Batch of 2 targets.
Target 1
Amino acid sequence: MNAIDKSMSSDISLGLLLEALAASPHLPLVFHYDGRSVKPGYHVTEVKAGQFSALDCGANPEAWPEIFVQLWDVEEEGRTHMPASKFAAIIKKVTEHVRLDGSAKLTFEVSDGIRPMQLYCASSPSIRDGTIHVELLARAASCKPRDRWLAEQAHTAACCAPTTASCCG
């Protein structure tokens, strides 16, 4: 099994995406969003890095790096989906001018030039029919204190539920 077929988080970093793409650089890279594939003429129109500081709704300070990759979903006659190596080359070119943290949260901004840009996170790359497919999932708003509480509850339930084994600590 190559790296691209491994199960990955539904919110992967740029570093993990590039690592997965490196396993099959010659294959076409197709992003999917809102139930459709990007058109063969899509462009990576902008890559930007940001460092964010915030206060969440529970008055907890938050800080994180984030990388935004903007996709322009257009059809161009005679074009095919770009190979994974071209996407990687675009990112490499950006790193000559902008510091990109490979572990940063990765957000895709996608528009067809008519509809407003929408925000997505990248899911597990997979190879199907000789093509690398990357699902883009809508990035929803969330309440970070609630998310942390739910994660703690899930961990407690999974970790310390009555079993024949001793409770993990």
Target 2
Amino acid sequence: MDKLRGKKVLVVDDIEAERQLISTFLRHLGCRIYHAHDGLDGLHKARMIIPDAILMDFEMPNCNGLDSCKLLSRDSKTKAIPILFLSGYSSPSEKVKGLMAGAVDYIAKPFNFDEVKMRLSIHLKYSGTKPSCEEGRLEEGESEQGFSHSQLDEILFYSAQIELLKSLDKAPGLDELARLVGTNAKQLNISFKAFVGLTVYEYLREERMKEARKLLVSTGMPVTDVAQAVGFSTVGTFSTAFKERFETPPSRFRKLERLN
């Protein structure tokens, strides 16, 4: 593919067999390939070579891909280089962390070579188009992090959602949640409103009510235990919130559901 011919690609992976596998494929496409065996080695070589793109494994010893990506994204010499993560794990939380660290994409192992070629071609086509820090201005609709506002809202929402749903009975407060996803409370609420039409508090309350309804219908847990399981300190507060949401107290709701 002409878009890839002559392009410098740095492959960062601690497993030699996987480095060689993807490198052999990219050489057939005309790429000039460079290797690094961990995140620290990748950081040094990226600064020396200034490749057109970096394919980086997520989990590596010494310095993992996430930490290396953060450093490369903050370096004025390397921040414009598109970084694509490679990983055998495809959890939403991992993808979100990668995007928040500065990566542009995520390719799952084992590799689908057509996908590798397509994604790399797309990002090489648009790489180098970000305004430089010397220009001192942002394109319309772009945030200070380099994402469009809609992109940033989506990333922050999914990142925060993961933290909130880990344990509804111990969900972090707004300030702590904002800290965990790398933003501030005001921006996090703005992103939630833009993406799902609810504030963080409203979204969490709705998720708690949905989970409570499920527990009341599918288990025999006492209402007091259901209240605690979804994060309410007292059964009275829970019952009031549940009735406001479903127009029926939790005990009566359970009885009605079992009659249907």
